[in-house]
Structures are given as structure tokens and as C-alpha cells.
């Protein structure tokens, strides 16, 4: 394969190379290394802060899940009682027939 064709009027001009002062180069690398060190320490601070936030959010989620489970169980109990009432089955017999004794263990 041949190289892509260039327009004959294309002229690439490159600027002349400039030597940079060793003091300026040292300053650049010093600033870069200080930035890396600062970033390392700042990242550690942020991680600790966000670890506290994640722990707090996890505790909130656990509490919300417990409340949702209680509400779900309560709704299931209510639904089963309504179903037993509609079908005219005594409560104890309905619990045995429907196999929902685990819902009423607390009662």
C-alpha cells in the first residue's frame, strides 16, 4: 500500500527548537510532584469522608429495608385475613389450609 497522497502545496513548518532553562524545568517538575503529593493526601481525606457517608447510607438502607419487610408482612397478613373472610373460613383453619402459619407466628 502506498502512503496517503498529500497536496503538493502543503508545507509543514516546524518552529525552531528552544532550549528551556534548567531552573524552569526544575520548577515544572517540582510543581508536578507537589501536585501529585497533594492529590495523594487529598484523595485519602476524601476517601475517609466518603467512607463515613457510605456507612451512614448503609445504616439508612438497612432500617428502610426492615421497615419495608414489616410493611410487606403486615400487608400479607391483612390480605390473608381478607381472603379468609371472603371465603368464610375460620381463621385457624385458613392458616392451616393456606400454609401461612409463618405470617402469624408473632401474633
Automatic annotation (TrEMBL):
Can you say what this protein is called?
ATP synthase F(0) complex subunit e, mitochondrial
What family does the Swiss-Prot or TrEMBL record give for this protein? Belongs to the ATPase e subunit family.
Keywords (alphabetical) are:
Acetylation, ATP synthesis, CF(0), Hydrogen ion transport, Ion transport, Membrane, Mitochondrion, Mitochondrion inner membrane, Transport
How it assembles, according to the record, is: Component of the ATP synthase complex composed at least of ATP5F1A/subunit alpha, ATP5F1B/subunit beta, ATP5MC1/subunit c (homooctomer), MT-ATP6/subunit a, MT-ATP8/subunit 8, ATP5ME/subunit e, ATP5MF/subunit f, ATP5MG/subunit g, ATP5MK/subunit k, ATP5MJ/subunit j, ATP5F1C/subunit gamma, ATP5F1D/subunit delta, ATP5F1E/subunit epsilon, ATP5PF/subunit F6, ATP5PB/subunit b, ATP5PD/subunit d, ATP5PO/subunit OSCP. F-type ATPases have 2 components, CF(1) - the catalytic core - and CF(0) - the membrane proton channel. CF(1) and CF(0) have multiple subunits.
Q: Which GO terms describe its cellular component?
A: mitochondrial inner membrane; proton-transporting ATP synthase complex
Q: Does the keyword Signal apply?
A: no
Subcellular location, principal: mitochondrion
According to its UniProt entry, the protein's GO biological process terms are: proton motive force-driven ATP synthesis
What does this protein's UniProt record list under function?
Answer: Subunit e, of the mitochondrial membrane ATP synthase complex (F(1)F(0) ATP synthase or Complex V) that produces ATP from ADP in the presence of a proton gradient across the membrane which is generated by electron transport complexes of the respiratory chain. ATP synthase complex consist of a soluble F(1) head domain - the catalytic core - and a membrane F(1) domain - the membrane proton channel. These two domains are linked by a central stalk rotating inside the F(1) region and a stationary peripheral stalk.
Amino acid at each position: 500500500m502506498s502512503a496517503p497522497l498529500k497536496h503538493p502545496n502543503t508545507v509543514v513548518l516546524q518552529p525552531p527548537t528552544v532550549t528551556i532553562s534548567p531552573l524552569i524545568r526544575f520548577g515544572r517538575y517540582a510543581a508536578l510532584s507537589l501536585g501529585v503529593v497533594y492529590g495523594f493526601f487529598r484523595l485519602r481525606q476524601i476517601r475517609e469522608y466518603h467512607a463515613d457517608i457510605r456507612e451512614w447510607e448503609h445504616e439508612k438502607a438497612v432500617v428502610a429495608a426492615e421497615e419495608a419487610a414489616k410493611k410487606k408482612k403486615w400487608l400479607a397478613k391483612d390480605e390473608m385475613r381478607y381472603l379468609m373472610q371472603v371465603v368464610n373460613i375460620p381463621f385457624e383453619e385458613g392458616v392451616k389450609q393456606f400454609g401461612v402459619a409463618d405470617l402469624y407466628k408473632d401474633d
